[in-house]
Amino acid sequence: MSRKPLLWTLVILLLVSLPVIVFSDSHSRRRHRDMDDDDEEKVESSSVLQDHLVTQSYMTLESREFEVELWSRYAKGLRGTSDADYWAHAVEAEFGLMKRWQIGAGANFLQPHSGSFSYTGLEAETRFRFGEPGKWFMNPALSLEYEIPKDSDDPKSLEGRFILDKEKNGLGVALNAIYEQEFVSEGESEGEFGYAAGLFKSVNKSANVGVEVMGNFSEDEQAHYAIPGIYLRLGKKARLNLGTSIGLTDESEPFGVRGFLEFEFD
Asked: Residue 114's CB: how many other CB atoms inside 10 A?
């Protein structure tokens, strides 16, 4: 296995993480103690503390809040293979079970370049955040996602993420450490580590820009991506994220487009 993908990943993660070391822990703790209701509302509405295109955030829905999300992704087939281009879609609903704990469920769909639109499976997700924004140097959370494919021959999978993010003066960083376990057959499973991370900058009250990276550390094939994006708030109850993905290794899909549309309900 070539060391270049791993080297690329370490370099990218280092560059994304550099702003963290200039964030003041004492400032964040003081800000948390002095935060009033208006400040808390601003933190909760900040897109840097919301989900992006591949990077999950620390923030969760408040109790009894509800969201509907529409995800779409276009991917070009792998270089030097017969793999065809395709569109992948997902519809998800999330609900705030408690103040810092949310649950969700969704359905996945696939549209091959030369095939018919089809349903591919279900997924269930839960996320829990620890404390309020600013309590820790970086805001921590945990999430779990379980996927059940329509085809019984395809493996079910369980993905866990340890999430950290931080925001200061319109600049934000988010880090996800990922472990995915696939249940290939009875009594057999395969697991791999992965990551997602992003660096984000506020442009104005309704728009942010950023760059995300994602990849895996599979023993067989390592796919790594850079994903520049724009993140828009459409009024008070909707968000739109758009970006392009660029493959960084031979095992990566060379080019893709990603979109995410979210509607919020109290």
From this structure: 7
Residue pointed to by tokens 């992006």: 52
203-254 residue pLDDT tens: 998 999 999 999 999 877 889 999 999 999 998 899 999 999 999 998 899 9
Domains of the chain: 4-265 (2.40.160.40)
Q: Which residues, at least 6 apart from 253, have a Cβ–Cβ distance to it below 8 Å?
A: 75, 76, 77, 78, 223, 225, 245, 247
The pTM score is 0.81
Of 68, 86, 66, nearest in space to 76 by CA? 86
- Considering only CA atoms, which of 179, 183, 145 is closest in space to residue 162? 179
Q: What is the rounded CA–CA span in Å between residue 203 and residue 201? A: 6
The token pair that represents 205 in the structure block: 């009250």
Integer Cα distance of 254 and 78 in angstroms:
6
Q: With beta carbons less than 8 A apart as the criterion, state whether 242 and 262 touch.
A: no
